[in-house]
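Good morning C.,

I know you're traveling, so I'll keep this short. The sequence:
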Amino acid sequence: MIDDFLTHRLGAVEEAVHEAAAAEIMPRFRKLADHEVESKAGAHDLVTVADRLAEEYLTAALTGLLPGSVVVGEEAVHADPGVYGALRGSVPVWIVDPVDGTRQFVHGDPAFCTLVALAHHGELLASWTYAPALGEFATAVRGEGAYLNGRRLVSGSPESGSELRVAITHPDYTSPEEKAVLARLEVPGVRLRYCGAAGLEYLRVAQGDMDALAFSWPAAWDHAAGLLLVAEAGGAQYTVAGEPFRVDWDNALPFAIARDDATAIRVRDLLAGTA
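The tokens, ready to paste straight into the viewer:
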């Protein structure tokens, strides 16, 4: 069933993502009323009516395209944390972040996106990253490459001897312990900045516009689409335990994502304190 879906129905998923953004997200961009924005778990963790309605739209559309599948979406998990357990189940799972970069969306910044990934038994099979306000749509299928607006993505490698450009978890979302670990990247030859919408940071690595990322939180909806995108563009990723990040188990954190294997290992070793 999955193989047939991957062969014949991927275009329908892209259409559903386009439609969700057109129906529920873009009509509200820079037009949100105060009552349409709420805080979930603190002042920096925002949710809007666009997040909720876009996730509802995608949940109906995606499960309709692949009968027997389920959705693990950010807003559904916020309402019922038990939903996250579906990632360890036996049925195909859609991993959905309806508005990745909600803070940017709320403040009228176009650097937000919709993220969708399809996984089965923990393996990422396909992903969609759509930044409607930027006109960027990236896709990846396991074993078939990564593409941005139809153009093949190749992450390449950093130029020899150049300063590594690394985006890290924004301090608003880190504990003192996580800040201390991420501070291990503050070494000569590494230029750090704080990340924005995770999905767009993954896209920049897949394009070769960023060299690496270091993230300290595990939420599958933020990472699944980008992990496959970077992998299919030629990149690599490791947790501090030296294993790949997976959506279906508890991972050692933080983890490093990079344009190539050597860079991912270097960043991972710095994070682990073994460099």
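Safe travels,
E.
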